[in-house]
Specification:
about 35% helix; 5 strands; single chain; 3-stranded antiparallel β-sheet; alpha+beta; two-stranded antiparallel sheet; about 110 residues; Nuclear Transport Factor 2, Chain: A; 4 helices
Length: about 110
């Protein structure tokens, strides 16, 4: 996955979170994904579990926005920097995604 593809994935991630569209969420992840909201959390395992969890834990409409940009790519390690905007809170995040896991779903 190159920088342009990774940025497209990040943009799709934000769009999926904002719309809670089941197909858009599912398209982001491989069948065998392990997904964590926080580094120390136990992972959600599998695409179906991630989709179900996102749909069960929705933010109130209009309270979420985010912007992410590609920071670095080294092999299968992809690093992004961005901000989540949830109501009056803004959280600065640095995320890491494994490109292989993401691309296997497509």
């Amino acid at each position: 996955m190159d920088r342009q593809q990774f940025q497209a994935w990040l943009d799709a991630y934000v769009e999926a979170w904002k719309t809670y569209d089941e197909a858009k969420i599912g398209a982001l992840f491989a069948d065998d994904v392990e997904y964590r909201y926080h580094p120390i959390d136990e992972p959600l395992k599998g695409r179906a579990a991630v989709v179900a969890n996102w749909l069960e834990n929705k933010d109130d409409a209009g309270t979420y926005d985010a912007d992410y940009e590609v920071l670095a790519i080294d092999g299968d390690v992809h690093v992004a920097h961005g901000h989540n905007h949830i109501s009056e809170f803004t959280h600065a995040l640095i995320g890491v995604a494994l490109g292989k896991r993401i691309l296997e779903s497509q």
